Amino acid sequence: MDSELTIIGGGLAGSEAAWQAAERGVRVALFEMRPVRDTPAHVSDRLAELVCSNSMGARSIDRALGLLKEEMRRLDSLIIACAEAAAVPAGGALAVDREFFAQEVTHRIQGHPNIKLCRQEVTRLPLGPTIIATGPLTSDALAEEIVALTGNHQLYFFDAMAPIVEAESIDMEVAFRASRYDRGEQDEGDYINCPLTEAEYTAFMEALLGAEIIPLRDFERGDQRFFEACLPVEVLAARGHESLAFGPLRPVGLTDPRNGRRPYAVVQLRQDNLAATLYNMVGFQTSLRWGEQKRVFRMIPGLENAEFVRYGQMHRNTFINTPRLLDATLRLNTPDADSRPPIWFAGQITGTEGYVGSAMGGLVAGLNAALYLQGQPALAFPPTTMMGALLHYVSNADPQVFQPMKANFGLMPVLEKRVRRKKERYQAYARRALADLQPVVLKHRCNTLD
């Protein structure tokens, strides 16, 4: 590890951090343990592999994730550029062909002259400046090192992946194409919708609640927590009979072309690859046994003969108590931090939840590591930007009850002038954020290699 900067983890955050530092002339050693050591969720050795949904959220800047992506795009984000190159139709969202996306990130990282990609597991923290971006599936050995470094026990919750089905196995005489409120970019709609009557919905709920789940493994036993925005469908269903009908199966804005009426509930499927041969079940993250998934999900009209190319899974997500450990630049600020070379954390391990939030952390950590190595002051993003607001939250939340957070407008400072209508208010937040980001963008461009 003789490079100027060591980055551990080749996911979204690690890849973004490596790119940002390398673009500023810093020599980077990026360590990724796959394929030497696999994880419970990944299926390839590509960098930035997406293991849950293939969607990176809304594009519009009056949506929180849309604004966050726009801020990152203006800072020349690798992940956003690769996502745009791998985009598939998804209405107003940015969804990607996950294989093409990961391949594109890997290709660009491997081709950068300042980045050395090292395929090996890191079990001991290096002695030089380091970014830890190991994500929610941090290996046990490195997790122990992090605990020893921080003096805090690791926290964890459980995340679940949605199933993916073959498009040809969906019965399109029952299912229909449409986007809610006709917001799709194509006339036929970007989503495939499977409509349920009230009786079909009731039967499905009963089967779902009676299905067998995968038992926890030994290392997962204890305080089981789920991230509220990514609940397994069976956990959400247990909250009440109508919880799915008013949640991921809400039928508003959709009309069944067979009868011209709104269904009682709708299961939506979103395109998962550029060839449109695979579709994932929106909102159907699950921990059911695979055989149970096949039995229960085939009760959904249109999916009676569905061929599953990937079943849903549940895995452990690890994150640190960021408010106790990091500042808003993502640098470790424990009392003894100055006695050793600097360490930054990035990605979901910091509690910046979701694909885009994870990559954003990598961008900030990579940028600040480069600034440190070049003798320049660290950069804390304005709290009026979505990047700054999310980083301020994770570094300043109450450490006693800290939980991961996705980007949302509720994190941002209130506007000087009150705007009553939500859409207009969010547009005002976005205008202010991009204006306040502009000085950062100009400084970024001055410090980036041509």
Short description:
The protein has 450 residues and is of the alpha/beta class. The chain contains twelve helices and 16 strands. The radius of gyration is 22 Å and the shape is globular.
Report the principal-axis shape. Answer: globular
Largest sheet, strands/sense/barrel: 6 strands, antiparallel
| Number of DSSP strand runs | 16
Enumerate how many helices there are, as a single number.
12
Please give the alpha-carbon distance between the first and last residues: 27 Å
Name the beta content range.
5-15%
- Strand order in space, largest sheet: 10-11-12-13-9-14
Which CATH architecture of the largest domain would you pick? 3-Layer(bba) Sandwich
| Overall number of structural domains | 2
- Helix fraction bin: 25-40%
| Poorly predicted runs of 5 or more residues | 218-223
